[in-house]
Amino acid sequence: MSTTPEPSGGLTLRPWHDNDAAALVAVADDPALHRWTGMRAGDTTEALRWLAVQHAGLADGSRYTFAVVDDGQHLLGHVVLKRGERPENLAEVGYWVAAPARGRGVAPRAVTILTGWSFTRFPELTRVELRHQSDNTASCRVAVKCGYAYEATLAAAHPYPQTGHLHALERTL
Questions:
Q1: Contact 145/108 with Cβ under 8 angstroms?
Q2: What tens digit of pLDDT does each residue of 48-62 get?
Q3: CATH superfamily entry for domain 12-124
């Protein structure tokens, strides 16, 4: 059983490395990332702090985070499977895409790869959820493209300052 998803469709999901800090800083100065995510990496120190959180989550099994890169190893985005403080059969997927990679199908492909890997890697997992702010129509399209069914509109709650949508994908047996 692989500890990382298999490359697919020109994308590789690989663990983050500290030497990704410069690439992270290069993509982080993006108003859309600031609007939709909590990721901040204005300089190398801040990027290394963000990367340390990703490493810690991987080490304790609460967050399986991956850099999304193309065949040339250019940073396209980030995907994460969140498992901490949830029932063992439940996880949540999150993601962001760097501005230069948007509109190329990176998010749906990366989320699909991560979701498939998740159900294989964790046989006890029966449900993966995807949450986004209600006005984030691009994330709503990603959820639908990946087969995540809309389930509910959620009240604003940390880390979402506005109402949100809950989408879910159940394991098919």
A1: yes
A2: 998 999 999 999 999
A3: Gcn5-related N-acetyltransferase (GNAT) (3.40.630.30)
